[in-house]
Amino acid sequence: MGVLETGVVAVGIDGSRASLGAARWAALDAQRRGSTLRLVHAVDAPLVGGYPEPSLLAPQVTDEMRGRAARLLESTADQLAIAHPGLRIETVQQDGRPAEVLLDQSRRTIATVVGPDGIGRLSGVFLGSVPARLAAHGQGCVVIARPDPAATVGSESGVVVVGVDGSPEARAAIGFAYEEAALRGATLLAIHTWNDKPLNHALGDYPLDINAAGIDQAEHLLLETELAGWEQKYPEVPVRMRILRGRPAPNLLRYASNAGNQPTGLIVVGSRGRGGFTGLLLGSTSQAVATHATCSVAVVHP
Q1: pTM, to two decimals
Q2: Percent of the chain scored above 90 by pLDDT?
Q3: What is 159-300's CATH topology?
Q4: By three-state DSSP, how is residue 93 classified?
Q5: What CATH architecture applies to the domain 5-144?
């Protein structure tokens, strides 16, 4: 497992525009935290012929590949050092597949950051990609970064939205969301949803006297209970709470895109919520939000 390096934010670099955007997001986050930024590049030899056919010899990583990786890391570090004077930056290159290398990093660091796409990802496909594998199998916090280019150190980077459903995974997400909101000087918007679709269907067939407003009040009490301890730890963070009816993922995505005068800078979700299937490592809500959000998404494992 290794020792948890609580002073390090790691980010995967592969030379793509998405990974450079992720590096900028990670650099800003590391600077806010006073942490070290670790740039990580996996040196992976491509398949010969471009097709995964059986072969007696596995693709070999060459010194030339390692040299290109070193130059990529050095140039990226130089760019970030100019933009973030005083930020501690270290570089790591490791032979292996990107997902496995970054999964290893996630076991020890505060957060592991990747772009929404990049080398090795099929266009339009999230499931099976490096970000998806990291979000499903990683540990701690995994951030799929879509940075706001206008964000600067010390400025408010928009509202931080967190999905709350009472599960242990959601409780871990609440803690990370509060921390990010405090670091950014941002408002925290906590959203809890309950699905009223089965209720509407039942009422259509049977004249049941069900008080939906009463359910709203009960769910609001649950949300207040989940936030209570964190409000004492972060009293400086302004909090807004919303109870919404419907499915969690569409509600989070829709409400986050219309959070008021300030844009949403980050959506934080647990890796698998209360309604997730036991066999799924990444819940349907987390996967949908990570795939379709237009802002950065943090998937937090307990």
Answers
A1: 0.82
A2: 42
A3: Rossmann fold (3.40.50)
A4: strand
A5: 3-Layer(aba) Sandwich (3.40)
